[in-house]
Write a structure and sequence with these properties.
Jelly Rolls, seven-stranded antiparallel sheet
Amino acid sequence: MRSLPLPLALTARLSPVVVLACAGWALTSGPATKDTAAQDTTEPRPGSTSAPSSTAAAKTFAAAPAPCASVATKTVSSLVPGAKAAGKEIPSTDTTLRRTCSWNALKGYDYRWLDVSFELLDSDEAATTSYKERVADKSGGGAVPGLGDEGYSVVNLTTEDKQQTREGTVFARVSNALVVVTYNGSDFETKKAPGTDEINKGAIKAAKEAVAALKASAN
């Protein structure tokens, strides 16, 4: 069987590395005045609560789980026939904040690619904002009920040199974490792409398993 060159868009595929910066606050105080000192020695009135409170919100997820172990071997074999079950983790500038695993293979004339990423933000609010921005950027899809706190999927078809590629993207937010799954495929014999339903269901299946792995990592 003759070998077929992959389209440039697939062979040059890059997985973006997102650099997330965590901000810290330094709390300083000057010398106490007499009035302040007097207040400090005053006993709280009955029924009052004067215990200091922290303004830093606790994060549900402090580290990203291993992405290559987040999808079952059986699922990888089904979605990416011929791919190594172990996958390949993409280098990241900070693996506590972002981790991505990729599986891809060409079996016969059929090509499949699967990416699973975990991204951690400072708070639920920050994750919600990022989630909404990404959904807005990938308009045309729909909500996925029961996928994390919020879930969304979209499928797009592209054509390059008469070769079709259909790609599904799923976003899920769980507290302060985002799960991003990308799944695409092409048939290099027919020049056609897999059906929308096949790609969408495959991406959602991988996303559900990744969300379950994320939740388990917090226990």
